[in-house]
Amino acid sequence: MRIAPLLMLIGAATALAIAAPALGTDLGNCPSPTAYAGAGTSGDPLLVSTPGNLQQFRDTSGDWGKYALLTTDIEMAGCIWGSTFGAHLVAFTGTFDGGGHVVSGLSIATSSSEPYAGFIGLLGTNGVMQDLGFTGDVTVAVAQGSDSATGYAGGLVGLTYSSTMITRSWASGQVSGTAVAVDSGGGIGGSGSGYADASVVLGGIAGYSQGTVADAYFTGSLTGVATATESGVGAPSASVYGGGIAGVLGQGSISNVYSTASTPIVSANATGGASQVNQLWSGGLLGASHGTMSNAFWDATAWPGNGSGYTGPAGTGTTAAGLATFATFGPAGGNWSITNGFPGSTTWGMCRLVNGGRPFLARFEPSSTCTAAPDAPATGPSPSGTSADTGGAVVSPAPLPTHIRVPGPFVTTGTVPSGATSVVQIATGGAASMSRLGLGRWANARVVTRCPITAHGATRTFTCTTKLGPGRWTLSTQARNGATVVASSVRRVVVKAAKPAAVTG
Fold this sequence. Notes:
Blueprint: H1 3-16, E1 27-28, E2 46-48, H2 51-59, E3 67-70, E4 74-81, E5 95-110, E6 116-117, E7 120-123, E8 128-135, E9 138-144, E10 148-154, E11 157-160, E12 165-172, E13 174-183, E14 197-203, E15 206-209, E16 212-218, E17 221-230, E18 237-243, E19 246-249, E20 253-259, E21 265-272, E22 277-283, E23 286-289, E24 292-299, E25 309-310, E26 316-318, H3 326-329, E27 338-340, E28 348-350, E29 360-361, E30 387-389, E31 403-406, E32 410-415, E33 422-429, E34 446-451, E35 453-456, E36 459-466, E37 471-481, E38 484-495
Parallel strand pairs: 2-3, 3-5, 4-5, 5-8, 5-9, 6-10, 7-11, 8-12, 9-13, 10-14, 11-15, 12-16, 13-17, 14-18, 15-19, 16-20, 17-21, 18-22, 19-23, 20-24, 23-25, 24-26, 27-28, 30-32, 31-38
Antiparallel strand pairs: 1-4, 28-29, 32-36, 33-34, 33-37, 35-36, 37-38
């Protein structure tokens, strides 16, 4: 893979571009664009407050150098963007401030005309992403009839320049990519040094990171396939770079991060020519690195190795339990800015009842009291009304529906079949006035969270923290192998603003 020269060309193309990029085809239930307020400065930001506002921002490349602020959680209800903001012709060079909010229900799927996929595709010079949570699948698929094809996909950003910042943000979903390159000449006249070069660069936070990533985490999965076919005498090359935080860390830096991603499903297939090169460089945090990394952790039980390409920092491998233990990140461990409980002035907090017991970012959780220490089991509802459901939501066969009454977030844990590669929770409902909610009302279903699978010997489990607004919800927890549902269970959840004790029945 010839990454460095390619990046030089990308930078030159971005600097010279004056036209907006061509938009890919959107699929699914995407909203109509609606105008937003604001001048686009830090003192008077563009206010993105509705799904329509976000759609409008995606469509307005002239605003990609401004300051945009998300004012509330945005649910995109199954919308699939064929292109995103920050593209190979017009990079995103402004600030996207999530305000401690989450964009969910949105997937990104770009093709050959746009090789960068992420909530932001290409984060250009001085671009900033901060305080954003993103739950959605990101896919890049590039194909080139000759020479090289390279795709970059990240849970938050596809590729970042050296003077960029991603901070206090997280992603959860599946990051995937395919690249296909075919060369039939083998160089000039069919006998030179031509080659078919197919490369995929995948990362939980950024596909290719050259800037700064600080205080971030990823809880999703990665898949990548590169195929290079040479009909002449050249040397085809197929490469996949995958990392729980970044597929490739360039000259940038990464600090205070963790990933729960499991070993990815990847393959590199080079055929034909005089010789072939197949490269699979992947790691729990990084696939390959030229940069620096500190205070970085990953679940080494789910992903046994870290980094097999180039040279660079390795990070610290731990277990799922280690990621839910304060000492891993506190002064005796990573020395993060973290509180054992809900944070006051620190960047992170830890509570067994939030985010599966792993560190959470302060901007995304209101101040409260944690009655269960991070490294002690939850024993019931907290004063803030959070309840833990440990009934085993996904088993085979699935259990009867469970009725839970909680006034806020709750934790779902369970055991998954051996054939499952992912777990998702899908919710329907949310109207506070509903007297009952039929299980057949799936037209308004939305994915509320994806749950990483943790391997413990022969037992494979998951833990999810789900936040639902007041109302009556039907929650389906599904274990999947790709698009196939391996097992599922259905429960009803009543969320009230008051603080009653948890009940079952």
